[in-house]
Write a structure and sequence with these properties.
Elements (H helix, E strand, L loop, with lengths): L4 H11 L3 E5 L3 H9 L4 E4 L1 H9 L9 H14 L4 E4 L8 H13 L4 E5 L18 H14 L6 E6 L1 H5 L1 H13 L4 E4 L5 H11 L4 E3 L11 H6 L4 E4 L2 H20 L12 H8 L1 H16 L6
Helix pairs in contact: 2-4, 5-6, 8-9
């Protein structure tokens, strides 16, 4: 029996409380996350925009851009992948349905869809605008209806906290769950007590987005567990570290004419090969080459 990605995501959530979800901007990052023990991973829309396209996360990237990275990640790991689907990649129910079906077909386990307007902004930046509750409810209904696998998780994200306040965000989340959302994602939460209020109101798993340099404090897993949070997301932590390390190396090479002084910040060749299973591939190649090079005995 084939176990679906959505089933694996739900199983991981049941097994680890709260479930730590590691942001992975590419397939190699997913390999490292898997080897370090994470049970679920995440593809950020901001990560696709910045990492794959070199652009800001301002609704510039497309569904196809996201699917390219989804397929690369799910091809290399069985860890269940949660995907940032922004506002659904289109204004109609048919666009949202296409997004859901394409994500499932590409191996994703879950998606979150948000209630910002189509011209969205970063959830931790000013100037956000959100659609009506009714329009977001329609987005959720369209996503749930489009599922070709019942285990695929539809998560509702709201940016209402920063725009309309706590009670409005709670009311919205309750409506989204009534519309069929499996889990919820309140963005830009500033206090632990807010998570408790969300959890009490909706009675479904709550995700805490613990992103750096935003408005949400860097709460610990223990603090979040005590606040009834079910999933803890670290969307771009490794990506930011990678960028800082790369920039340091580029500057050293350019300014000093050598990388000698930054070698200690690099992953070694042997470590890279270990994560890639390089020697397994090499042995397979050698085996195939040896077999193909042998001459038949009757010659």
């Amino acid at each position: 029996m084939i176990i679906s990605a959505g089933f694996r995501f739900r199983a991981a959530l049941a097994a680890e409380k709260p479930l730590q979800v590691a942001g992975c901007v590419n397939a190699y990052a997913a390999r490292m996350a898997e080897r370090t023990g994470f049970k679920a991973i995440y593809l950020s829309g901001a990560g696709v925009a910045a990492g794959s396209l070199g652009l800001p996360d301002l609704a510039i990237s497309t569904l196809d851009d996201v699917l390219t990275d989804v397929r690369r990640i799910t091809d290399i790991t069985d860890l269940p992948l949660l995907v940032d689907a922004d506002t659904g990649f289109g204004g109609s129910a048919f666009n949202i349905a296409r997004t859901v079906k394409s994500l499932i077909k590409s191996g994703a386990a879950a998606m979150h869809i948000e209630d910002q307007v189509q011209a969205k902004r970063c959830g931790h930046r000013p100037g956000k605008a959100i659609v009506s509750r009714e329009e977001m409810v329609d987005r959720i209904k369209a996503a749930v209806d489009a599922r070709t696998n019942a285990d695929f998780v539809v998560m509702a994200r709201t940016d209402a906290l920063a725009v309309e306040g706590l009670q409005a965000a709670i009311d919205r989340m309750s409506r989204y769950v009534e519309a069929g959302a499996d889990m919820v994602f309140p963005e830009a939460v500033t206090e632990l007590g807010m998570y408790r209020q969300f959890a009490a109101a909706v009675q479904v798993p709550i995700l805490a987005n613990i992103t750096e340099f935003g408005v949400t404090p860097l709460f610990t897993v223990e603090e979040l567990a005590e606040s009834n949070v079910s999933l803890v997301l670290y969307p771009l932590s490794a990506f930011r570290a990678m960028n800082a390390a790369a920039l340091n190396v580029y500057r050293a090479i350019r300014n000093e004419g050598s990388q000698k002084n930054v070698m200690d910040t690099m992953q070694s060749r042997s470590e890279l090969y270990e994560f890639l299973d390089y020697h397994v591939y090499e042995e397979k190649l050698n085996s195939l080459f040896f077999q193909s090079s042998k001459k038949p005995e009757n010659e």
